[in-house]
Amino acid sequence: MGISQKLLSDGEYVVLSVRSHGKALIGPVALLFLVVAGVIAALMLKPNNTAVASGAALVAVPVLILLSLIPFLRWLSSTYTVTNRRLITRHGIITRTGRDIPLFRINDVAYEKHLLDRILGCGTLIISDATEKSGVVLPDIPNVEQVQLQISDLLFSQDDGNDDDGSRVPGEPPRNNR
Questions:
Q1: What is the pTM of this model?
Q2: Residues 67, 84: one domain?
C-alpha cells in the first residue's frame, strides 16, 4: 500500500499511508450477499429450469460487477500518503488520477466524525490549502483524529529553516528559530 519509493524525491520519506476504512465496503458486500441469496432462492424455487437460471445470471452478473466489484476495486486503488514534504492522493481503476499538495500550502487540517464513524473508528479528513483547487476531502479515514494530529505535527514541527523539508515556500527567507 502507499506510494512507490521511486516516486519520492531525494530526502523525501513516507510518514503515513492509509486507504479508506472498510466501512466503504459495507454496502457492496451486503449487496453481494443479497444478490447471491436471491439467485440461490430463484434456483431453489424453480429447480431444473434453465430459463430461470439464465435469467438470474443475466441480472446478477451485471449488478455484482457494477455495484460490488467496481466499488471494491475503487477502494483498493485509492491511497492517501503523507510524506515529509507533501500530501499525495491517488485513485482510479483504469485511469489513475492523483493530486500532490506541498505541505507548505496546507492552511488547515480538520476532521468530521458522525455517529457511525465514531462507532467504527473512522472519519472524514478535510485539508484546506492555498492552491487554485480548493483543498481535498478524504472520506472514511481510519483513526482520523490520529491522522489529523500527525499531519498537524508534521506541518508545525518540520520548519527547521531549511528549504528542503517542504515546510515553507521555496525562496522564502529562513525563519529565525529560537
A1: 0.78
A2: no
